[in-house]
Amino acid sequence: MSDDATAFVPGHITGFFSAHPADDPAVAGSRGAGVTLSHGVTVTVEPAAESVVTLDGETVEMPPVADVLRRLGVTATVRAESELPLGAGFGVSGGMALGTALAANAVFDCGHSENDLVTVAHEAEVRAGTGLGDVVAQARGGLPIRVEPGAPEHGRMDGIPARPQIEYIAFGGLSTADVLSGDTTALTAAGEAALGNLRDEPTLSRFVTECQQFARDAGLLTDRVENAIEDVSAAGGDAAMAMLGETVFAIGTGLSDAGYDPEVCRVHPAGATLESQ
């Protein structure tokens, strides 16, 4: 057992999705597509008598992280740092769960494989109601397409082979749990249509187009998000809404060209990684 270990997990923006609940959390998940970001979550795990979780120095209640520690049978101090806002569609809770799984496995010599750890984190997110597809996307990196839902043993992934600059601006948050616990019929129909179109034409431009259509069809657009997307379009760029948050992301310099002051990063080239142990 080592003193501590640190993992980095890229942020993840979902552009569109369909929800696929199941009694088994490893089978439950979502289909859809998104973007992993070079901005993400850095998680350090250190053995402790009692488990404590902090995010950017503040103690937080993070049920998926607590679930991961419980599943691994360990107690630890979990310190997470991120430039991404919580609850705004960037996969921070999923990143914390996956980062905790990777780092705790290293610290406590748990002996699990990567797929095992992704499954533990995915199941924790599903049980907490905080996400359905972030963890598997964050484990893969790039521009992931979730072809079939669920943890690695059940799901299937593909991706768009590109690594553009990404700009984003967050106006506020939306409750993932509230959306996922409601009627997702229209949302899922829109997500299935978007996925079919993207798989026929797996390009960046098609991805953004399908994200825009999905947000409209699913009834998730807010006024601020819609206005920002229209501003980017008027400036000759492409932007869409992050699911689930009151957040707009753009390919290239779309938000800057429209007069906004966005955060700037790139698509992350790889998935979650153990940085030190």
UniProtKB/TrEMBL annotation:
<comment type="similarity">
    <text>Belongs to the GHMP kinase family. PoK subfamily.</text>
</comment>
<keyword id="KW-0418">Kinase</keyword>
<keyword id="KW-0067">ATP-binding</keyword>
<dbReference type="GO" id="GO:0005524">
    <property type="term" value="F:ATP binding"/>
</dbReference>
<comment type="pathway">
    <text>Cofactor biosynthesis; coenzyme A biosynthesis.</text>
</comment>
<dbReference type="InterPro" id="IPR006204">
    <property type="entry name" value="GHMP_kinase_N_dom"/>
</dbReference>
<keyword id="KW-0173">Coenzyme A biosynthesis</keyword>
<dbReference type="InterPro" id="IPR020568">
    <property type="entry name" value="Ribosomal_Su5_D2-typ_SF"/>
</dbReference>
<keyword id="KW-0808">Transferase</keyword>
<dbReference type="GO" id="GO:0015937">
    <property type="term" value="P:coenzyme A biosynthetic process"/>
</dbReference>
<dbReference type="GO" id="GO:0016301">
    <property type="term" value="F:kinase activity"/>
</dbReference>
<protein>
    <recommendedName>
        <fullName>Pantoate kinase</fullName>
        <ecNumber>2.7.1.169</ecNumber>
    </recommendedName>
</protein>
<dbReference type="InterPro" id="IPR012043">
    <property type="entry name" value="PoK"/>
</dbReference>
<dbReference type="Pfam" id="PF00288">
    <property type="entry name" value="GHMP_kinases_N"/>
</dbReference>
<keyword id="KW-0547">Nucleotide-binding</keyword>
<feature type="domain" description="GHMP kinase N-terminal">
    <location>
        <begin position="68"/>
        <end position="142"/>
    </location>
</feature>
<comment type="function">
    <text>Phosphorylates (R)-pantoate to form (R)-4-phosphopantoate in the CoA biosynthesis pathway.</text>
</comment>
<dbReference type="InterPro" id="IPR014721">
    <property type="entry name" value="Ribsml_uS5_D2-typ_fold_subgr"/>
</dbReference>
